[in-house]
Amino acid sequence: MLKLFDIELFEMKATSRMSSDSMTTVPGEPGNALGAESRVHLIPQTPSLIDAHTRIRDRSSPRRDVLAHGRRVIRFLLEESFGFLPRDVVRVITPAGHTYVGARTTDDVCAVSVVRAGEALEAELWSIAPEVRIGKILIQRDHVTKQPSLHWAHLPDGIQDGHVLLLEPMLATGGSLMAALDVLNDAGVPDDRIIAVSMLSSPQGIEHVTRLRPSVRIVTSSIEERLDEAAYMVPGIGDFGDRWFGTDGNVTWL
Ligand code: PRP
Ligand code: URA
């Protein structure tokens, strides 16, 4: 089988590893079904995930269904992404008085969304982790050249001290993600502390980013077949920002 890159299909099986920080076993670590060291993770393709993907891609689906089932995809994606954040082993006492040995995500996590599409992930992120601070980067892909242009960034203080979930749901050519990574690097965040969260990814986009930034982790809910001549993903979802926000593709620059 031709492999453009190593995809780690991971299972949430009962594996554990030694945490380098605490040297204690962390329960519930994502397993590595292929034994590969890849930093590209296609989340488990469960029947429920495929159901949600089918509904959001169906062009006859009303927008309320796109939003409802899109939120399901986003939830799966974020829950899996959280598995790659550092965690502390904790012991809690249950209401029945027994000790449960578990693990909690550490507090040094920020998110950054690439405006506009990345904002679609924010509500679900906050429903999982309301304390997470969210920065924004406005990047616009030129409709003709497909080149990204960076307009502004507004990042949380201290972002360089922890891990960052970079919310960029469409990884097409990878240009926008690369521009966002540059912003985070300039702010002092190293690649190996960045988790790019992507709903749909193209093989070309993954290859682009992993070739130039091999330490960045990419978690995706789908790897598409290819890009078309307009640099949209196939089969894809069309323009995700327009589909999600209910706009028609016309940007007015003021
Ligand atoms: C779209 C999409 C991604 C980017 C991906 O954004 O939301 O950010 O293109 O393409 P790339 O990988 O080829 O760079 P766009 O700039 O169209 O803005 P939008 O989010 O407002 O739709
Ligand atoms: N942006 C999108 O929203 N979809 C694509 O397929 C490519 C870029």
Write a concise keyword list for the protein shown above.
binds 1-O-pyrophosphono-5-O-phosphono-alpha-D-ribofuranose, alpha/beta, Rossmann fold, 26% helix, binds uracil, globular, 6 helices, 254 residues, single chain, 30% strand, 9-stranded mixed beta sheet, two-stranded antiparallel sheet
Anisotropy-based shape? globular
* Residue share in β-strands: 25-35%
Mean pLDDT: 89
CATH class assignment: Alpha Beta
The arrangement of helices and strands along the chain is EEEEHHEEEHEEEEHEHEEEH
Secondary-structure arrangement, i.e. CATH architecture: 3-Layer(aba) Sandwich
Overall number of domains: 1
Broad structural category: alpha/beta
Contiguous low-pLDDT stretches (5 residues minimum) are 8-24, 31-36
> What's the helical proportion of residues?
25-40%
The profile of the biggest β sheet is:
9 strands, mixed
Bound small molecules, which ones? 1-O-pyrophosphono-5-O-phosphono-alpha-D-ribofuranose, uracil
Number of strands: 15
List the helices and strands and how they pair.
Layout: E1 8-9, E2 15-18, E3 25-29, E4 40-42, H1 47-57, H2 63-82, E5 87-93, E6 99-105, E7 109-115, H3 122-128, E8 133-141, E9 148-154, E10 163-167, E11 170-171, H4 175-186, E12 194-201, H5 203-212, E13 217-223, E14 226-227, E15 233-234, H6 240-245
Parallel strand pairs: 1-4, 4-13, 7-8, 7-10, 10-12, 11-12, 12-13
Antiparallel strand pairs: 2-3, 5-6, 8-9, 14-15
Helix pairs in contact: 1-2
The site of uracil has 8 residues, from helix 6.
